[in-house]
Amino acid sequence: MDTNKLISLMPDLAVFVTVVDCGSFTAAGKKLGVTPSAVSRQISRLESALSIKLLERTTRQVGISESGKATYDYCRVMLDSAREAVHASSYDESDPAGYLRIAVPKAFGKQVLEPLIFPFLAQYPNIRLKLKITDYYVDPIKDEVDAIFRITDSPTEGLVSRSLGQVELQLCASPEYLHQFGTPEHPKDLVRHNCLYLGEKTDDNQWGFVYGDQKVRVTVDGQYAVNHTEMRLNGILQGLGIGMLPSFTAEPALRDGKIVQVLADWKVMGNYQGKINIQYPRSRYMPAQLRCFIDYLVNEMT
């Protein structure tokens, strides 16, 4: 295939990657800002030009064919190389400018990152920050963000990771509640207490604890379940019971004596704890705005 024909196919190759990543013409069209029929026409044109069937179509979704898998891999490399070229063009440490797209978990974004954002933007007025606030996993490549925050001791493999601190889950209650109902001395004592839990999943009220070689799992109950850390903190402050909080939520109230940590010698098991990782795709040329952002956070958080 000559160069002119190859160049004309590049947009269709990019659309093909988007369809595979999104799983349907409708989702791909929404992401690209075009109609599903327009996406379908581009895929048909590409299949005709390559003389292979790239996708298996059903009424509800599309899947990649065996012959399409190799094509997808090469197309993914093409898009990654294009992204590298864009990054190289913005590699100017002296005057960082342009869009910076970051995905961050909800509670961490609100309580930890937001207070740091405004001074950063004041310091770098030519950077245009776009935050994606979500507790779901974001793929930097497929979801087109420059970096993601993950709170975990097992960062995503294949991405560069920089640790910015540590988050632990802490069991807390108000002094008034403990004065009235007593302080639990062992996790099993929690069954006699009013406990605030997430309520997102059926097993959210099953709390796990570790102390040395001891492992304990307790099924708790209570009159208030809420999957919002600040609202759960407010419930604890109001004396509704014993609740689980990430350390960045609990620390200000603990410092002021408004709440007390319970069972501090026991490690609370759960997902929303571990290292604070900012992760991004490996690249020869890191955009200046991302480099400045990471350096700023390292200076402020470590």
Task: Note down, in words, how this protein is organized.
This protein is α+β, with helices and mostly antiparallel strands and 302 residues long. It has 3 domains: 3-89, Orthogonal Bundle (Arc Repressor Mutant, subunit A), CATH 1.10.10; 98-159 and 276-301, D-Maltodextrin-Binding Protein, domain 2; 169-268, D-Maltodextrin-Binding Protein, domain 2. The protein contains 9 helices and 14 strands. The protein has helices at 3-22, 25-32, 36-50, 66-89, 106-123, 175-181, 229-237, 247-255, 288-301, and strands at residues 55-57, 62-64, 98-104, 127-133, 147-151, 159-167, 169-173, 195-196, 206-211, 214-219, 242-246, 260-262, 267-268, 274-281. Strands 4-3-5-14-6 form a 5-stranded mixed beta sheet. Strands 8-11-7-12 form a 4-stranded mixed beta sheet. It is elongated, with a radius of gyration of 25 Å. The termini are far apart.
Q: Describe the main β-sheet briefly.
A: 5 strands, mixed
**What is the name of the CATH class of the largest domain?**
Alpha Beta
Give the helices and strands as they follow along the chain.
HHHEEHEHEEEEHEEEHEHEEEH
Q: Write down how many β-strands occur, each being a DSSP E stretch of 2 or more residues.
A: 14
Specify Rg, calculated over alpha carbons. 25 Å
Percent strand? 15-25%
Low-confidence stretches: none
Keywords:
302 residues; alpha+beta; Arc Repressor Mutant, subunit A; D-Maltodextrin-Binding Protein, domain 2; five-stranded mixed sheet; four-stranded mixed sheet; 9 helices; 24% strand; elongated
